[in-house]
C-alpha cells in the first residue's frame, strides 16, 4: 500500500512538469497558454512554428510517463508502476504548478503504454498513425488510439492493467470533449490547418 502511494505521488510530480511551457519559454517563443488553443502539449507547441520544439515536447511528455512507470517498477514493483502511471497522467492533465490546467494527455498516455507493455504501446501508436492518415484529424486519431489501448493490453497479455487503460482513455475522452463536439458538427480542423 505504501509503495503504491509513493508511486502515485512520485508519478504525479514527474508528470506535472510542463515541458511544453519550459521549452517554449527557453526558446523565446512566448507563453504557450496564450498561443493557439492554450494547451501545453506538443500539438499547440507546433503552432508556434517551431517543429523542433514540438518534437521535443512530444518526446519529453511521452518520456515522463514512461520514466515514471519504469522507475516505479524497478524500485517498488508492478502495482506501484501502475499507480505511478496514473499519477504521471494526472500530473500532466492537472499540474499543481499551473493551477491544475494541463494538457490532454495523449503523448503521456502513449509513453505510459510503451513502458507498461511495449507491444501494446507500439500497437496503440500504430493505431494513432493509421487513424491520423485516414482521417487527417489529430484529435480523432487520439480518441481512436486511446480507446484501442485496453484492447491491446488484453491481447498482448497484461489484463491486470486494463482498468488503468480504460481509466486513462476515459480521461482523454473527457479532455477532448470540445474536440468531440466539433467532430460531431464537422468543424474539427484537419492536420496542418491550424486548429483550436
DSSP summary, beta strand count: 0
Radius of gyration from CA coordinates: 16 Å
Average pLDDT: 90
Task: Give, in order, the helices and strands.
Answer: HHHHHHHHHH
Show unreliable segments.
Answer: none
What about the largest sheet? none
Q: Please, how many helices?
A: 10
Oligomer: single chain
Helicity level, as a percent range? over 70%
Q: Which structural class best describes the helix and strand composition?
A: mainly alpha
| Strand composition percent | under 5%
Distance between the termini: 41 Å
How would you describe this structure to a colleague?
- With 196 residues, the protein is an all-alpha fold.
- It is 71% helix and 0% strand.
- It is built from ten helices and no strands.
- It is globular and about 45 Å long.
What attributes does this structure have?
single chain, 196 residues, mainly alpha, 10 helices
List the helices and strands and how they pair.
Elements: H1 2-15, H2 19-26, H3 42-46, H4 51-76, H5 78-93, H6 106-116, H7 118-135, H8 138-155, H9 162-175, H10 177-185
Structure in a nutshell:
With 196 residues, this protein is mostly helical.
Amino acid at each position: 500500500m505504501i509503495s503504491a502511494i509513493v508511486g502515485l505521488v512520485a508519478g504525479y510530480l514527474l508528470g506535472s512538469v510542463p515541458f511544453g511551457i519550459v521549452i517554449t519559454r527557453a526558446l523565446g517563443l512566448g507563453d504557450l497558454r496564450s498561443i493557439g488553443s492554450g494547451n501545453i502539449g506538443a500539438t499547440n507547441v507546433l503552432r508556434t512554428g517551431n517543429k523542433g520544439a514540438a518534437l521535443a515536447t512530444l518526446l519529453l511528455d511521452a518520456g515522463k510517463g514512461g520514466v515514471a512507470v519504469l522507475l516505479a517498477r524497478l524500485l517498488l514493483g508492478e502495482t506501484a508502476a501502475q499507480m505511478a502511471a496514473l499519477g504521471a497522467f494526472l500530473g500532466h492533465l492537472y499540474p499543481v504548478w499551473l493551477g491544475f490546467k494541463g494538457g490532454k494527455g495523449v503523448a503521456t498516455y502513449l509513453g505510459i503504454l510503451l513502458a507498461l507493455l511495449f507491444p501494446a504501446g507500439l500497437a496503440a501508436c500504430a493505431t494513432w498513425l493509421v487513424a491520423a492518415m485516414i482521417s487527417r484529424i489529430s484529435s480523432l486519431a487520439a480518441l481512436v488510439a486511446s480507446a484501442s489501448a485496453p484492447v491491446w493490453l488484453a491481447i498482448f497479455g497484461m489484463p491486470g492493467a486494463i482498468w488503468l487503460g480504460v481509466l486513462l482513455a476515459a480521461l482523454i475522452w473527457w479532455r477532448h470533449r470540445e474536440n468531440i463536439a466539433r467532430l460531431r458538427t464537422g468543424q474539427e480542423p484537419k492536420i496542418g490547418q491550424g486548429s483550436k
